[in-house]
Amino acid sequence: MTADSTALRQHALEALTTARTRTSALTDCVDDNDLTAQHSPLMSPLVWDLAHISNQEEQWLLRAVAGREAIRPEIDSVYDAFEHPRASRPSLPLLAPAEARSYASEVRGRVLDVLEGTPLHGRPLVDAGFAFGMIAQHEQQHDETMLITHQLRSGPAALTAPAPPPSDTTGLKAEILVPAGPFTMGTSTEPWALDNEQPAHSRLVPAFHIDSTPVTNGAFLHFIEDGGYQDERWWTEKGWDLVRGHELAAPLFWRREGGQWLRRRFGVVEPVPLDEPVIHVSWYEADAYARWAGRRLPTEAEWEKAARHDPDTGTSHRYPWGDSDPTPEHANLGQRHLGPAPAGSYPAGASPLGVRQLIGDVWEWTSSDFLPYPGFVAFPYREYSEVFFGPDHKVLRGGAFAVGEVACRATFRNWDLPVRRQIFAGFRTARDA
């Protein structure tokens, strides 16, 4: 075994172990009743996610990679995310919590044997450990989904984490000019990049200004107090229908009480912190705020150029700060904290032009529909990206505090319906230069 293959296996092992540690933390902190309950029709019971994670791991790493016989073939359809909408999953014959944990343990034990003995080259599915990285990313994505479920569940807090570090915005400009010109968008070299991030291609982007930080609760409060939710001028037709149909008046989980705005965050009710990035807003709310402010949401290409492009060298980096993996000094990721850090945090994670918090804290809505890049090829299955392409889904970029490091980079693309509010999404605005 070469030194390179040993390092690659260790990297894959660490990614899988980190994800499983988080999965255990999210499911061990509540009792079986909480695990099997559906806390919102928007989400699955936590126990469904727990077994689904391992069923995907079995299908891809034990069957597809190693060619082994199925452990539990009879549950494949139960944990098929495309066959059963979330609202219907409680009625399925789900594995009980103890059985789901036992299944997860058995699958993982066999997977570690496969990781140790499988050549990580010669097939696209295993080159550079791709399948193992894909499964680690899949588990972290479901960990984020389970964290959303924790936010939606009622009752006392089940999770704890330290507060993020304070910010220092001394000398930070409100917006930053991104010069006109081409840049390399997407990637053809990131070994664990998913299909929608590929291939790398050149994009010509006119000059624009972009907010140096995500929009804060305090700034969004000005929109509320100026009657933003009551003024049709700022809303698209579908957005206005959403506001009226659901009587929206503030971000999800906010309420006004005794002249003060409060929010509920993972079972704790607290005053809305004005310096934090706003979160739990739909694309329609983000778009309306931008119109009200005389600005707009950035396009996906603008966002990525602001996050990756170094105008001094003409190169695109893996992350705003360069090509090195994230550290706690760079970004708020991996559920290290249970919320976004104050706007202006993490100066070490700034882009070459000085834009901050492009990675971590909150997903950021862009104005772009989720579409394939030129030369896109679905891999290893159409249902990851291709079936979602089109005008129904908007692109989000940057990752949130809930996102695992393995599932977050400057080329990573997320997408969702523009009505979604339960996700950990905020935004920043832009304007033409």
Tell me what you see in this structure.
- The protein has a four-stranded mixed sheet. A three-stranded antiparallel sheet has the order 1-4-14, covered by helices on one side. A three-stranded antiparallel sheet has the order 5-6-7, with no helix packed on it.
- It has 433 residues and is α+β, with helices and mostly antiparallel strands.
- It is built from nine helices and 14 strands.
- 31% of the residues lie in helices and 14% in strands.
- The protein has two domains: 150 residues, dinb family like domain (Four Helix Bundle (Hemerythrin (Met), subunit A)), CATH 1.20.120; 272 residues, paralog of FGE (formylglycine-generating enzyme) (Alpha-Beta Complex).
- β8 and β9 form a beta hairpin.
The description of the largest β-sheet is: 4 strands, mixed
* Fourth CATH level, the homologous superfamily of the largest domain: paralog of FGE (formylglycine-generating enzyme)
Give the strand content: 5-15%
Name of the top-level CATH class of the largest domain: Alpha Beta
- The sequence of SSEs as H and E is HHHHHEEEEHHEEEHHEEEEEEE
Helicity range: 25-40%
CATH third-tier fold name of the largest domain: paralog of FGE (formylglycine-generating enzyme)
